[in-house]
Amino acid sequence: xxxxxxxxxxxxxxxxxxxxxxxxxxxxxxxxxxxxxxxxxxxxxxxxxxxxxxxxxxxxxxxxxxxxxxxxxxxxxxxxxxxxxxxxxxxxxxxxxxxxxxxxxxxxxxxxxxxxxxxxxxxxxxxxxxxxxxxxxxxxxxxxxxxxxxxxxxxxxxxxxxxxxxxxxxxxxxxxxxxxxxxxxxxxxxxxxxxxxxxxxxxxxxxxxxxxxxxxxxxxxxxxxxxxxxxxxxxxxxxxxxxxxxxxxxxxxxxxxxxxxxxxxxxxxxxxxxxxxxxxxxxxxxxxxxxxxxxxxxxxxxxxxxxxxxxxxxxxxxxxxxxxxxxxxxxxxxxxxxxxxxxxxxxxxxxxxxxxx
Length: 357
Prior knowledge:
With about 350 residues, the chain is an alpha+beta fold. It is built from six helices and 20 strands.
């Protein structure tokens, strides 16, 4: 029995979370298999399953009516920012370009006429056949014509760019919503993309853990694939329970502590693993897990004192290795039975048990 007590003390010291030792007690108090509990700081951690998902998909829409052409992408294809994804053809887009070119030609003709009119007014002014007011009016007309020509050219360039659907950011194709040769309308989604820089980690917490998670909490994401762990922080809490009773939490990679620190690795959509959040440090009493006894949905420990052994109801908290921290019910310095606690708790049960008739 003394050897078992020494072994329990040695194991508790090796754990590093509590300083518990077996000591001699006054006469009348049991000493075998007992330990004195001490309080030690413990950091509460909330763990949950998490998966990397897009914050929001990018939808590439048709700006004008037309027919999809040169669609060579498939779901999963990587795209670069500004890359041409498809082209719009057909009578509608061609008619738009014709109108824009005609507007440019008309604007340039008006510009040429305004310049010629200004030249005429200046020559006539030199011959005293015109007035300065007429020259000023001709200059104003020329400025208006130049602005109209610039606007018409810009509209033509914009219409020409509308023919091409470009990627707004680097990423991957999630879905192709219109096939090559399909007629589309203005505003219709042609492709759905996932931007590489718009990913976050989504995790669901339940019960008391969901109420304790706050924006700004730091944690660690450990991929199930076995890759390097990543430091993360909570950036959003949904503040509404899902149908399964969980609360969704959004996390992003933590910022670098120093400017010269290495950049965190990039994660990929669909990656999943375990998220562990640190919720602060507090001082709790630790007992060997073997000292806990569950009876009628309540947890107890057996406290040994000069008057003998008594039952003490407790509220267990987080567990670390072979030891469990007690949230409520014990104070530092108390002696508890850590060996054969169940047998001691139910000692004499045969005398109290009445068999049915």
